Recover the amino acids of this structure.
């Protein structure tokens, strides 16, 4: 067997082995731990294990795109940095399910907004899923640590986007309290291009933090390398099989095998269950892929009389969480700047002249997102060689969305909006505050009717104490296969109603500690 790898000297930044560096058709490697995926969970695992002296190999399916190559053009970023070139959706095709697929994963393209996991969910997970180890007191130092490492801090006053300033006026008029966003961004350049990757490295994504730190501690990182099977022997994890794919041609360049006594799945809530299903592992409960949630969002786009130019400033400046816990309403409101591509798909602008007329008012628009805490009603499956994401918005969750859209529209009109566009498949415009209830009450929970976007897939490999109801135990190890760990957003037993990245960062740090203690 040919085991030769030629590693070219890195021309930029991170030391990453890419498809272009590999000349052999078969590669065999050995490590103390192999990590699948280099996003929020995988990068943290890599650093935490490598810093305790473990030989770590990280395999990432996506390409290595150094930040100097980021385009600041959404359409191009979708093609290079996103899963399925930004085209991933549920089986109905009415929810765009966005995930990063590059070295650094979704943290490269995310908007960096951070929240600690609310105590409400930690308490709920203890009660309903036996996660009595994840108390607020136990988790606090983990949140502190990732907040320090990723420079998570409240936006400075000057970072507020022009649209958020306007929304703030509406909130003040209605007496609704708003929170100031906290983000893992250092000296934000205010370009508004978080979703296309931060060209100046100010966003503290995994690409510029934990991954280089892990490499400095001796971890090795392979891009363009898709893991296709997890290996286990007599109920104990033993490694993975992967394919190195040439990103230019899409053709397989090499088969790669890593033998390792610790296997960590951090491929995200769609790919981690797919890998377990393909490998026929860890599914005695029948729960792998089940309980998928995704925080569906609908953005209302408001038109104002004057130019707002809401395309620079912090991507997120403010949030309204007065009604976010399930008993209070189950929705979170977030402002977000938007580029012309997003502006054109968040409404039904028509084609030809109507489209031109709408886009000519782009500089006057402001969007406010409604994000719902959803029930875990979805399922990720693997059928005929392809993944499928079965998810339809639940009727009760749709009522939460309607309540959120009403509050959202009230705020926008109170801020002085002339009209508000609802993101439906057929044109739907609210012309005055008086029409809000009638228009929103008329919305029905039907497939293919709304332009949903999900930025936060979650669930699918639930963590919990009961091996008949959950896939992963409270220490992050699968119930069925020893030394096989999950460390990504698929762990979350329920959706959490708030942006989940800090939850993933903290859980990955916690589980890394468990692994380092168990395998000292
Ligand atoms: C556009 C966008 C905006 C967002 N904004 C925010 C925000 O503002 N705040 C917030 O809290 N959250 C945000 N999120 C969500 C947040 O980034 C994710 O919840 C978090 O990164 C999930 O971490 P993860 O480890 O589960 O997966 P990811 O970070 O997605 O990493 C998974 C990695 O695994 C790789 N992979 C998949 N399959 C394989 C395989 N078979 N072999 C090898 N590698 C594989 C993928 O390519 C990917 O790089 C956003 C997400 C997106 C897409």
């Amino acid at each position: 067997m040919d085991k030769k790898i030629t590693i070219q000297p890195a021309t930029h930044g991170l030391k990453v082995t890419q498809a272009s560096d590999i000349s052999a058709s078969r590669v065999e490697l050995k490590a103390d731990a192999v990590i699948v995926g280099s996003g929020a969970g995988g990068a943290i695992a890599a650093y935490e294990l490598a810093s305790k002296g473990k030989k770590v190999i990280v395999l990432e399916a996506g390409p290595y795109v150094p930040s100097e190559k980021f385009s600041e053009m959404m359409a191009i970023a979708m093609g290079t940095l996103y899963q399925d070139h930004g085209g991933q959706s549920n089986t109905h095709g009415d929810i765009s399910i966005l995930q990063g697929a590059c070295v650094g994963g979704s943290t490269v393209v995310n908007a960096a907004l951070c929240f600690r996991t609310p105590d409400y969910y930690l308490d709920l997970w203890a009660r309903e899923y036996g996660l009595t180890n994840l108390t607020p007191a136990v988790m606090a130092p983990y949140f502190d640590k990732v907040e320090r490492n990723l420079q998570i801090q409240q936006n400075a006053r000057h970072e507020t986007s022009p649209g958020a300033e306007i929304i703030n006026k509406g909130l003040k008029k209605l007496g609704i309290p708003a929170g100031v966003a906290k983000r893992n961004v250092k000296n934000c350049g205010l370009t508004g291009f978080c979703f296309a990757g931060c060209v100046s490295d100010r966003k503290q994504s995994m690409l510029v933090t934990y991954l280089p730190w892990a490499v400095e501690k001796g971890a090795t990182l392979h891009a363009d390398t898709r893991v296709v099977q997890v290996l286990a022997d007599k109920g104990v994890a033993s490694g993975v099989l992967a394919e190195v794919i040439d990103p230019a041609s899409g053709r397989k360049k090499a088969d790669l095998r890593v033998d390792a006594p610790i296997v960590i799945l951090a491929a995200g809530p769609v790919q981690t269950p797919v890998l377990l299903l393909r490998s026929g592992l860890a599914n005695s409960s029948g729960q792998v892929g089940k309980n998928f949630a995704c925080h569906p969002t609908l953005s209302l786009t408001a038109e104002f009389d004057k130019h707002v130019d809401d395309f620079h400033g912090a991507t997120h400046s403010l949030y309204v969480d007065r009604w976010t816990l399930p008993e209070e309403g189950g929705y979170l409101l977030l402002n977000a700047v938007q580029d012309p591509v997003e502006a054109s798909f968040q409404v039904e602008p028509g084609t030809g002249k109507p489209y031109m007329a709408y886009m000519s008012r782009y500089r006057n628009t402001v969007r406010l997102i409604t994000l719902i805490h959803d029930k875990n009603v979805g399922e990720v499956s693997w059928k005929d060689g392809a993944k499928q994401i079965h998810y339809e918005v639940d009727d009760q969750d749709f009522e939460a969305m309607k309540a959120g859209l009403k509050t959202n529209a009230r705020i926008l009109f109170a801020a002085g909006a002339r009209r508000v566009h609802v993101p439906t498949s057929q044109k739907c415009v609210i012309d005055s505050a008086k029409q809000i209830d009638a228009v929103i009450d008329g919305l029905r929970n039907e497939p293919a009717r709304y332009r949903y976007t999900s930025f936060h897939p979650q669930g699918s490999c639930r963590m919990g104490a009961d091996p008949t109801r959950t896939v992963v135990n409270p220490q992050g190890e699968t119930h069925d296969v020893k030394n096989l760990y999950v460390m990504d957003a698929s762990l979350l037993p329920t959706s959490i109603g708030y942006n989940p990245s800090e939850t993933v960062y903290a859980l990955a740090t916690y589980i890394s500690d468990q692994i380092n203690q168990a395998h000292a």
